[in-house]
Specification:
The protein is an alpha+beta fold and 212 residues long. Helices cover 42% and strands 12% of the residues. Helix 3 crosses helix 6. The chain is elongated and about 60 Å long.
Length: 212
Amino acid sequence: MLDLRFRPLPKWKEKTPLLLKEARFRTEYNRTLELLEYELAQLKAREIVIESGFTFAELRNDGWPRGGTTPIHPGVILYFHSKDGPLRFPCGSYNDYRDNLHAIALTLENLRAIDRYGVTLGHQQYLGFAALPAAGIASVEDAAMFLALQGSGRQSDAEFAVKGKEAMGQLYRLAAARLHPDNSQTGNKDLWNFLQEAKRLLDAHHSEATRA
């Protein structure tokens, strides 16, 4: 299984617009994931994140989309760390997020092929894709939804996390007990880091509300 996580991308903010055209290629999604896994392995990729039009509620605890869900837009951005540093590959050319992901996998394949001919030095072909690491939880609403899903498991509790600091704290404690890396059964370092981001955002939100 490809070791990556999906992360919500509520709006497409790239300079290139979503083109929403039909892909010229047709391939099974499993084939896309196999190709992506192979190419990322060649780059020794780690901390792999795919930003997409799914919401936190549409993502499972393992970071993959729930079955039967459809993103609000098809654009995807692949982030990962490699021996060349953090890299970023956005694609919104096609009207299906799976086709956009396949286009990224093909791009990785072709970039790697350039090295075969000895034209570039030091993986220069990747310089145009250099980026800062993928952003974390972007809004108070996302933070509250993350706490609700990881804490009580009820989406409806997100509203309480936004409105009340006590409710937020209770959800945080539930989530922290389950996600802490020392928990041998349900601990998860990546989700733990997201949890800390969510708590910081909500703490700041409630502090501002108190001052107001």
